[in-house]
Fold:
Amino acid sequence: MFKGTGTALLTPFNENNEVDFDSLKKFITLQLENNIDALIILGTTAESPVIDHNEREKIIAFACEQAQGRMKIIIGTGTNDPRDVVEYNKTAEKFNADGVLVVNPYYNKGTQESLLKHYQYISERTDLPILLYNVPSRTGMNLLPETAVKIHEACKNVVAIKEASGNISQIAHLFSIKPESLKVFSGNDDQTLPIMALGGNGVISVFSNTFPAEMRSITSAILNNDFNTARELNNKYLHMMNALFVETSPAPLKYVASKMGLCKNILRLPLDVVSEKSEGILDEALSVFETNLRH
Structure:
């Protein structure tokens, strides 16, 4: 799959609420210039539920063309209808993606056993490597460690899990029972250090959209077993990481990216721009972050 930093790429929009490919190119170029290890296209950060089928294909084609094989490309294909996931996976296959990220089915909550059947259905219909994505705050359902291991053992191409439960005890338990063949990626920027210290392979990051060099410096230090540097950098950047979640992501990220001249501060409903209060929090965090970079 990959090791290190994968960026959960946002989707920029223009004043007409159409995909802004000029800005998308800026983001991808920034990732390339900073040697990011993977791009995760059309995940939650990309506002994927409000991206239509035609737009999905155009975004994937554009990202693959821009990346030029210099980083792994992983496509978010998860939804709550496994038949749709299968169709999205076919598009990922068409563009020779390196893998797909499949989030737990949301709203129509099942059981741990039905999750196993859900992922088996999907796995049997693609040869692409699959990353499970556990984010209970978004889906309303927690993928338990035992279930993740069962899915991995039952599905030959389920190779990894993006863990965004936020429950470090649960994640530590996962490491204690999983086989070496199941890779683990942090789904929360602020938990990258502890998860990788437990044996994780990297992070799928929101923070690295705008600060790729900084996130990669943390994961590179950990992969080199330089935990003193990793701790120092993590403490230095943590305030900014957390500020990017002052409201529902990616609204705070888009505000910061717009301040940096990377894209317009435009989201698609049901999401909206951050409040004036949150703007103040983000402005302060950005100011502190920039000061820290100079020292």
Summary: The mean pLDDT is 97. The chain is about 45% helix and 15% strand. The beta strands are 4-8, 38-41, 72-76, 99-103, 130-134, 158-163, 183-186, 202-205. The two ends are 35 Å apart (CA to CA).
